[in-house]
Amino acid sequence: MGLNNDRIVTPFAAMHRGGDRSQPFITWYEDTHGHRVELSLATLLNGVAKCAGLLRDEYDIQPGDTVALHLPMHWQRAVWLGACWSVRAIAAPDYAGKAQLAIVGQGAPSSELALDVLEVDLSPLALPGRNHPDIFAPVSTPVLSDPALLLADGTVLDAGEVMSVSQVLADAWRLSTGGRLMAVDPVPDAHTGLATATGWLAAFAVPLVVEGSVVIVADEDPSLRATRVEIERISAVSKGS
After folding, report:
1. Which H or E element spans position 81?
2. CA geometry: angle 40, 41, 43, nearest 5 deg
3. Per the count of CB atoms within 10 A, which of 13, 42, 122, 170 is most buried?
4. Rounded CA gap, 63 and 4, in Å?
């Protein structure tokens, strides 16, 4: 599924490329309760590092292990994807099969086949792994051929394919370099075959690949969209309706 593109790098390398990390990278809205959280790339990467340390040091996640992810449209989607890819694990959104670890929101169903389950607090500013360092050094550097994302049909995308597919999504949504994506749940997948993984890529890998940013909206109040698009200077919306 990968594209022949010499510019494609691993998600890990994209996370740590140069540039201004102080600008907003993720802005998260949850309209039911009126929550809004904004994170710079620097702050997000601190969270990724802490959670990667937690995966490796507390749950012994090794390269090639599968980590099932059961989280709603939340900024922690980006944190846990980044953490999985930092330890060279396979992120498996909404996966109910055999996994080394299942990460779940409070009260959410998880895989009965997971060897361990980590229930995380999804309140606006909560973050697991706070006792771990802000910097994470992988034992071995992630590479393009690392298996990285398990899709609903059993297909496993490697790290290079994750970024190639994310570029395809960015092009389909007309999101150009440096653009600001609005990712709205649910994200349609009729033209990609990626099922629920599309919403996960929109929350992290797509803005990474275009060196842009993302506004994640959960439980959207449609009456707020037009104003929010203007205020947040949205370049593209991942939902067509």
Report:
1. helix 76-86
2. 65
3. 170
4. 25
Counted residue by residue, the chain has a size of: 241
Q: What whole-number distance in Å separates Cα of residue 77 and Cα of residue 196?
A: 12
Q: Around 102, how many Cα atoms within 13 Å sit in the side-chain half-sphere?
A: 21
CA atoms within 13 A on the CB side of 175: 31
To the nearest 5 percent, what fractions of the chain are helix, strand and coil? 30, 20, 50
* Dist. CA 73–CA 86, nearest whole Å: 21
Is-contact 89 55, C-beta < 8 A? yes
Measure Cα distances from 25 to 52, 60, 61, 205 in Å.
19, 29, 27, 12
**How confident is the model at residue 122, as a pLDDT?**
93
Q: How far apart are CA 226 and CA 229, in angstroms?
A: 5
Q: Which domains are present in the chain?
A: 21-135+144-225 (3.40.50.12780)
